[in-house]
Task: structure prediction
Amino acid sequence: MNRIIKKIRSYEISSSKFILLSALYLSYVLNLAFFKTVFSNFEVSSFFQGLCLVLFIPVSMIPVYVLLNLVLFKYTIKTISSILIFLSAATNYFMFKMGTLIDLDMIQSIFETTLRESSDLITFPSICWTIIFGVIPILFLLAIKIKFLDFKKEFIKRGIIIGVGVVVLVGYIGVFGKTLFSFGRNNTKLRSQYNTLNYIVNTVRFTQEKLRPPREFKILDDNVTSNIEDNNVRVVVLVVGETAREKNFSLYGYERQTTPLLENNSEIITIRNVFSCGTVTSRSVPCMFSSKGRDKFDVEDAKYEENLLDIIKKAGWDVVWYENDDGCKKICNRIESYKSYKLGKNSRYCFDDYCFDDALLEFMDDRLKQIKQNTLIVLHTIGSHGPSYYKRYPREFAKFKPTCDTTDIQKCSSQELINTYDNTILYTDYIINSAIERLKKYKNFHTSLMYASDHGESLGEKGMYLHGIPYSVAPDEQKRVPFILWLSKNTMDDMNIDFTCLKNKIWDRTSHDNWFHTALGLTQTQTSLYDKSLDLVTECRK
Result:
């Protein structure tokens, strides 16, 4: 063993060869998901297209090769190479094995995720993969000697390599551009799969956003008022779901009975054909509470302007946010807010750094007892957050068996994974129904509840797991979400709502865009931001 180590340490390689080998390793060995997509989707129906594909293999390495020639110099070569190999090995695992894509939203999620959430993603296979494809190559490159030419010769040689690489790349695009652009338009996820450059480019974009100078907070409406003219107390509860997909709710036709309580509640209004604003929490939740809607929504802009909570608070409501997921993404910064795993340390539903969503019901109970004025309560659930689905529900909700009791979900069979996920939906059914039953007890209040999940989830369909695929190419499993409404009789009488009209309404395509305006309608908030056409209730007012 010592002889092998000595031999490695005595091994000497020129900088140009080292950079070439690094580019080959990063571009091919650590780009499995990228080439899987290319070879699975590139149609070859002519000699020209076949030649395009054959040449694509070596040409695809050029961007990484050029980049390495630009940044790997004598005093940076080992450090930067080690970082790139380690990061690329890790991202390669999640892209190839889990179907994850590394775009700007994913980078934002990575930087904003909590230790609790990220620890669920660190599994034995991911560690082994990263050691084999990342750590071991790094140890080798740290041991060997890299020989450089003098600065001038090195500079000239690099310049020639970069120049030739750019010419070849431009020439290739010039000849096969039409075929490449057509292929790229139909396979937009390739941009997020091209390893090394995907996380570098999107991290730079994310950093640029963060380094922008502080912006002035934007007041969207200075004349918010309330349309409420009596002294009755209103209580509106907004339940924000996590990772629940419409497909697995029996309320929406799923063959398994995963929502028995809601199905037996004749007062429930099921909104259908609902599409989320995004496929990650860091985008979807701020978007749900924004007046802009998905098409005009910008995550950074949302941080510097009023949202739904600010507007309703201006209308004189008491607004409170109870958090059981991984943060409100800054939308609750200007209102009263609590984190369940801090507030509920003594709760039987809390364990170390996480709680079952039952903890939110305890907080809701305490709040309802204190209410003396119109109040908006937001419950941000942990819902069906993966990959540790088995941690999201108490054992008595493990109806569907066998279950997948590990974060290494690829070790489980498809049925075990679905069973575990379905148990999270069964528990969500209980949470929503329990919140409604609590509101029913307060007959002197005018109460209502609205639930929607932030995004859906992939459970192995088309080789995809979890969520976070760029919206344009994301499957419906990650975009179609449940949206549920419940109104007390007091609320319907007060607002002249025809329940039969709501219950029997055939919903065309709806989305998170309706959340903001329906909430304004339920709280009877008068604001220029309100769009009557997006209020799901307005058509059924007498």
